[in-house]
Amino acid sequence: MCFDKLVLGKKRIAIQTIKMEALQILNKIIVINQILYSYYQNSILNLIMLLFKNIKGERVDPVNHTLEVIKNYPYAEIHIGTDSQNINKETHYTTVIAYRLGTRGVHYILSRSSKKIIRDMWTRLWKEAEYSIDVAEWMTQKITIKLEIDMDYNGDENFKSHKLISAAKGWANSLGYKVNVKPNNQIATRAADYHCK
Length: 197
Prior knowledge:
By secondary structure, the protein is of the alpha/beta class.
């Protein structure tokens, strides 16, 4: 009887040890997955950032380009905005970094991407906010600049996009960005709309 208890006790300890080791391995897997996901996200974002072009179709480094614009026009306002369109079986996104040069007009660079069609309007429109905020965050990590985010959502309650304003604008505001929605200051999203069609 005493021997049986000893064997059962050893089995319990062995099972608990195995459980602890399994939990430790699982925690290591979770940490590795988080690191890989973060690396993947940063790699994809850095790749997207390399794909900015001017209106002539020439590749432009957004950081160096922005620094050059600020050097030549220290009063320039910088706006970031994204628009999307469903065309055939794809959803096309265009993200624009626009530089308002006071009374000298607007200059911009853009990045285009396409995905398998996103039929759900809310998902497609939310992705516009994600792209704009991702670019703004990427830019402000690289250089110290003041940015505004233009969101292609309408302040008029009669438009469906109005429902996204509080969440998307709140998110961008919480990161320190001024947000412009229709009908106000749509500098970047107007250019994005033009190149999205």
